[in-house]
Amino acid sequence: MRPRHIPSILQFTKTIWLQAAECWREKQHTAVVVDGTVGNGHDTLFLAELVGERGHVYGFDVQESGLANAQERLETAQVAEHATLFHAGHETVADKLPEGTLVSGAMYNLGYLPGSDHAVITRARTTIASLQALLPVLMPNGIITVHIYTGHEGGTAEGDEVMAWSKTLSWKEYRVGRYDFPNKEINKEHLLVIEKL
Fold it and tell me: Which terms in the Gene Ontology molecular function aspect does this entry carry (predicted)?
């Protein structure tokens, strides 16, 4: 049984996003967020419900089956009008976002799409390109959460490169946090959180 007082990475991620949404509401801010890895749309739905009727989610994925599942999930929850899904890699984010868009936050779950071809995975090169492209359009106090999985081939290498990239971000401009379980030996995972000052 999972310890009651230490949240899972998914729980901790949602807590961070709920706190961010509270700030949006206090400032009466219309939130625009990015789901960099739509998958089957679980996070996309979470984000669409979080941004509310005035906000919008832009989602990216390279697998049509996942996007179809995500679209169906959004339509069932009656929030599809608050999301735009792109059949494209997240490295195209700067080209796909409407010109002048400021982003309140972005969420990434690296690795592969559950229930699909495990050979189709996110890669450090495109992940870092996407993250780098988002930084200039991220609003002050905007957040980026990156859930790094290492239990698949290529996962550790991608995670190491993304972590190394995050260490290059200026302390004067960003805060970078990390949450993980140091004693988890199999399928280690990490949460990287970036906040723009």
Answer: methyltransferase activity
